């Protein structure tokens, strides 16, 4: 009976290696596809994500999942997440793991190249503007896709501290009238 709950050494190694490989592949895919990939999920996206999780879980645990294999897989994924969090504290690690923020809109102008590169649609930007209470595009200083995948809207008025735009792709497109000297 207890053999149904356990795991042997070879299967344990397979579970750990599979977890590491899937974790790295998912991180690479999110980096390639952009942070917007997981930031705002529609019901279709959520269904696809659940199916993807089930598929990956089955591939990691093998034909006959056991309690020990599941616990080992969970522990491995939590450890990988913790290690990634520590890696992001280093400059090089942050560059590898985190996407850079991108200006999507500078003043009233949408930056179509940045939208395309970031996999963000004009409709998504307009929705975020409405959520921020923007009634006219002339109210906007800039819109930035953050490294988290969230979209920030900065209004005209008080100038933007230049330090807040450090490492932001496309910051040079923000009109000088909106940026503090």
UniProtKB/TrEMBL annotation:
The keyword Membrane applies. It is a multi-pass membrane protein. PANTHER family: UPF0702 TRANSMEMBRANE PROTEIN YCAP. Residues 95-158 form the YetF C-terminal domain. It comes from the Bacteria. Gene3D superfamilies: bsu07140 like domains. It is found in: Cell membrane. One of its GO terms (cellular component) is plasma membrane. This is DUF421 domain-containing protein. It comes from Candidatus Avipropionibacterium avicola. Belongs to the UPF0702 family. It holds the Pfam family DUF421. The chain crosses the membrane at residues 12-32, 44-61, 67-85. Keywords: Cell membrane, Membrane, Transmembrane, Transmembrane helix.
């Amino acid at each position: 009976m207890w053999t149904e709950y356990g795991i042997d050494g070879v299967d344990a190694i397979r579970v750990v290696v599979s977890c590491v490989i899937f974790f790295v592949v998912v991180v690479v895919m999110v980096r390639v596809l952009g942070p917007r990939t997981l930031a705002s999920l529609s019901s279709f996206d959520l269904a696809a994500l659940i199916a993807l999780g089930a598929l990956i879980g089955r591939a990691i645990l093998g034909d006959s999942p056991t309690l020990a294999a599941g616990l080992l897989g969970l522990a491995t994924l939590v450890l990988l997440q913790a290690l990634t969090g520590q890696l992001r504290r280093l400059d090089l690690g942050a560059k590898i793991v985190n996407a850079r923020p991108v200006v999507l809109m500078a003043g009233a102008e949408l930056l179509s190249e940045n939208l395309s590169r970031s996999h963000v649609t004009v409709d998504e930007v307009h929705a975020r503007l409405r959520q921020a209470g923007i009634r006219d595009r002339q109210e906007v200083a800039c819109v930035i896709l953050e490294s988290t995948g969230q979209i920030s809207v900065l209004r005209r008025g008080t100038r933007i501290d230049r330090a807040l735009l450090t490492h932001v792709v496309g910051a040079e497109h923000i009109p000088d009238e909106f940026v503090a000297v």
